[in-house]
C-alpha cells in the first residue's frame, strides 16, 4: 500500500486537503508527521527512560489526568508553586533530556508550512492520554515571548481538540485529531483557549491504548 497516493491525487487535482485553516494564524496539517511516527515514538521512548512520565498537580492541588514528561532546554511543570518552565526535572534533579533532532526538524517544517519561518523550539512537552484523560480549556501563556507559534503533534488514538478564542467563554470549535496530525497556532491565535475532550478507548497499531501528544514551544 502506498499511503501517500490519495494525497498525491488530490494534489494533482489542485486540492490541498491536508492543510486546513482553523482560525487566523492556526492551521491543521493532516498526517504531516505520520511518515515519521515510528522513529518519533522510539525517540519518545528514549526520553521517558531518562525522565519518566508522571501525573503532575495543578497549583490548586488537582492531579492531572494526563501524564507528562519533557525534553529540551526547558520543561513545563506544575505543582503547588504554580505553572512554570524549569531547566531540570524536579523528579531527578537532572537536566531534561535533549530534544531529539527529529522533533525539532518536524516542528520547524510544520511551522514553515503554516507560515511561520525559523521556528526554533527550546521546550517539548510530552503528554500521554489514556482513556478518560482530558485537558481542560486553557491558554499556553507561560512562555516569555508570544511571537513564536505552538506546534502540537498527535500520535496514536484519535482525540477531539477544542479550539476556542481569546476568551474562556468563546465557544470552541471541535477539531478531530488523528495519528500524525499536526496543529500549529500562533500570531493572532497564539493565546487562544484550547483543550482536549476525554479520550475514548481504542487500540492503535503503534501506541496501543493511548494517545501521545508533543507540544513544542519557544519558552525563553
Ligand atoms: O494534547 C493536546 O493536543 C494539547 C496539549 C496542550 O494543549 C498543552 O499541553 O498545553
Ligand atoms: Fe495547551
TrEMBL record:
<dbReference type="Pfam" id="PF13532">
    <property type="entry name" value="2OG-FeII_Oxy_2"/>
</dbReference>
<keyword id="KW-0408">Iron</keyword>
<dbReference type="InterPro" id="IPR037151">
    <property type="entry name" value="AlkB-like_sf"/>
</dbReference>
<dbReference type="GO" id="GO:0005737">
    <property type="term" value="C:cytoplasm"/>
</dbReference>
<dbReference type="GO" id="GO:0008198">
    <property type="term" value="F:ferrous iron binding"/>
</dbReference>
<keyword id="KW-0223">Dioxygenase</keyword>
<dbReference type="InterPro" id="IPR005123">
    <property type="entry name" value="Oxoglu/Fe-dep_dioxygenase_dom"/>
</dbReference>
<dbReference type="InterPro" id="IPR004574">
    <property type="entry name" value="Alkb"/>
</dbReference>
<dbReference type="GO" id="GO:0035516">
    <property type="term" value="F:broad specificity oxidative DNA demethylase activity"/>
</dbReference>
<dbReference type="InterPro" id="IPR027450">
    <property type="entry name" value="AlkB-like"/>
</dbReference>
<feature type="binding site">
    <location>
        <position position="76"/>
    </location>
    <ligand>
        <name>substrate</name>
    </ligand>
</feature>
<feature type="binding site">
    <location>
        <begin position="83"/>
        <end position="85"/>
    </location>
    <ligand>
        <name>substrate</name>
    </ligand>
</feature>
<dbReference type="GO" id="GO:0035513">
    <property type="term" value="P:oxidative RNA demethylation"/>
</dbReference>
<feature type="binding site">
    <location>
        <begin position="211"/>
        <end position="217"/>
    </location>
    <ligand>
        <name>2-oxoglutarate</name>
    </ligand>
</feature>
<feature type="domain" description="Fe2OG dioxygenase">
    <location>
        <begin position="120"/>
        <end position="220"/>
    </location>
</feature>
<dbReference type="GO" id="GO:0035515">
    <property type="term" value="F:oxidative RNA demethylase activity"/>
</dbReference>
<feature type="binding site">
    <location>
        <position position="140"/>
    </location>
    <ligand>
        <name>Fe cation</name>
    </ligand>
</feature>
<feature type="binding site">
    <location>
        <begin position="127"/>
        <end position="129"/>
    </location>
    <ligand>
        <name>2-oxoglutarate</name>
    </ligand>
</feature>
<keyword id="KW-0560">Oxidoreductase</keyword>
<feature type="binding site">
    <location>
        <position position="138"/>
    </location>
    <ligand>
        <name>Fe cation</name>
    </ligand>
</feature>
<protein>
    <submittedName>
        <fullName>Alpha-ketoglutarate-dependent dioxygenase AlkB</fullName>
    </submittedName>
</protein>
<feature type="binding site">
    <location>
        <position position="142"/>
    </location>
    <ligand>
        <name>substrate</name>
    </ligand>
</feature>
<feature type="binding site">
    <location>
        <position position="194"/>
    </location>
    <ligand>
        <name>Fe cation</name>
    </ligand>
</feature>
<keyword id="KW-0479">Metal-binding</keyword>
<feature type="binding site">
    <location>
        <position position="168"/>
    </location>
    <ligand>
        <name>substrate</name>
    </ligand>
</feature>
Amino acid at each position: 500500500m502506498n499511503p501517500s497516493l490519495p494525497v498525491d491525487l488530490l494534489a494533482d487535482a489542485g486540492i490541498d486537503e491536508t492543510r486546513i485553516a482553523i482560525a487566523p494564524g492556526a492551521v491543521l496539517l493532516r498526517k504531516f508527521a505520520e511518515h515519521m511516527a515510528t522513529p518519533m515514538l522510539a525517540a519518545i521512548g528514549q526520553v521517558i527512560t531518562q525522565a519518566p512520565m508522571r501525573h503532575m498537580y495543578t497549583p490548586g492541588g488537582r492531579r492531572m489526568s494526563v501524564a507528562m514528561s519533557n525534553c529540551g532546554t526547558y520543561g513545563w511543570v506544575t505543582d503547588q508553586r504554580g505553572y512554570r518552565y524549569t531547566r531540570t526535572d524536579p523528579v531527578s534533579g537532572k537536566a531534561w533530556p535533549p530534544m531529539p533532532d527529529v522533533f525539532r526538524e518536524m516542528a520547524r517544517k510544520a511551522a514553515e508550512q503554516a507560515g511561520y519561518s525559523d521556528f526554533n523550539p527550546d521546550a517539548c512537552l510530552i503528554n500521554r492520554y489514556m482513556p478518560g484523560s482530558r485537558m481542560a480549556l486553557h491558554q499556553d501563556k507561560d512562555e516569555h515571548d508570544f511571537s513564536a507559534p505552538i506546534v502540537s503533534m498527535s500520535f496514536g488514538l484519535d482525540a477531539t481538540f477544542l479550539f476556542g478564542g481569546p476568551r474562556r467563554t468563546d465557544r470552541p470549535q471541535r477539531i478531530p485529531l488523528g495519528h500524525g496530525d499536526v496543529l500549529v497556532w500562533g500570531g493572532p491565535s497564539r493565546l487562544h483557549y484550547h483543550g482536549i475532550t476525554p479520550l475514548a478507548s481504542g487500540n492503535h497499531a503503534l501506541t496501543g491504548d493511548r494517545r501521545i501528544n508533543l507540544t513544542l514551544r519557544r519558552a525563553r
